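Name: D-aminoacyl-tRNA deacylase
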Amino acid sequence: MQKNYQVLLVSQFTLYGFLKGNKPDFHVAMAPQRAKPFYASLVDRFRNAYNPDALKDGVFGAKMKVSLVNDGPVTMQLDSQSPKNTIDAAES
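Structure predicted for D-aminoacyl-tRNA deacylase:
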C-alpha cells in the first residue's frame, strides 16, 4: 500500500483441478453459484481497503488471456477454505 502498487485479482478455479484419467476434474472447486459472490466480495474488500484505481480484476467465468510483469514483492494464492491447524496436531 505504501508503494501504491497495482493489484490484479483473477478468479482461477482451475487451480483446484486435477487429472482423473486423461480428463480434468474440478469437483473440489467452489460451485459457481457460491464462487461468483465470494469473488465479488473479495474484489469489494480490496477496493474499500486499497486505492480503487490501482485495482484491476477479471471477468468471473470468462475465458481471459492475462499477461503481466510481476514487479511486486509477492504473488499470493488465497484459499477459501479454513486452514487446518497442523501446529496443535504436531505438538500433541
